[in-house]
Design goal:
Elements lengths: L1 H13 L6 H20 L2 H18 L10 H20 L22 H20 L2 H12 L4 H8 L3 H21 L1
Helix pairs in contact: 1-2, 2-3, 2-4, 3-4, 5-8, 6-8, 7-8
Length: 183
């Protein structure tokens, strides 16, 4: 869903909708700054490179082809290229920066941004569906699966029979599964 929103925002930007740049920036700036910083090793240089990326995006949004790359991959490539361009233009490698020929191999210790966006969407969907459950079911599932409580502990805490807790959790999980499948 986030990937599709990013694609739609880039398409809007390509048609001249200035307002589309803000959600693109919010969704991608941290990741792209990280790429620039890993290559350049300097906050200021990375910020300047990032600004260049968004200026390029403003000018070239119409060149994005969703059949060739995900939006975040395309933007990450732009960020890498801008950072390498700044390395070349600077004439020297700053402390903490990578050598130009090693810039393509800069490791990123995090999940790819598109995978991270997908996980965020999934988590938001789970919480949305949890919110739709009956209060006692929701509470039992949260305490059991997020808090680590056993069914016996839940039964004692709620002062109900163990079979009641098991039924609440079972019915709640069934409803949660149906809701998630509809997302």
């Amino acid at each position: 869903m986030a990937r599709e929103a990013l694609r739609a925002d880039i398409a809007r930007l390509a048609k001249g909708d200035r307002a589309a740049l803000e959600p693109i920036y919010r969704a991608t700036s941290a990741k792209l700054f990280g790429i620039c910083f890993r290559i350049l090793g300097d906050d200021r240089e990375a910020e300047d490179a990032l600004q260049d990326v968004y200026i390029d995006l403003w000018k070239r949004a119409d060149r994005y082809d969703p059949s060739r790359a995900s939006p975040i991959s395309w933007l990450a490539c732009m960020a890498r290229n801008r950072a390498v361009d700044r390395l070349r233009a600077g004439g020297k490698v700053r402390a903490g920066a990578v050598a130009e020929d090693a810039a393509s191999d800069v490791p990123d210790g995090e999940l790819p941004a598109d995978a991270k966006l997908e996980l965020d969407e999934r988590d938001a969907g789970i919480h949305h569906c949890l919110g739709k459950l009956e209060k006692r079911q929701r509470g039992a599932i949260r305490r059991a699966f997020f808090g680590g409580a056993t069914y016996v502990q839940l039964a004692e805490d709620d002062d109900v029979p163990l079979s009641t807790v098991k039924s609440r959790v079972h019915r709640g999980l069934a409803a949660l599964k149906k809701c998630i499948e509809r997302l």
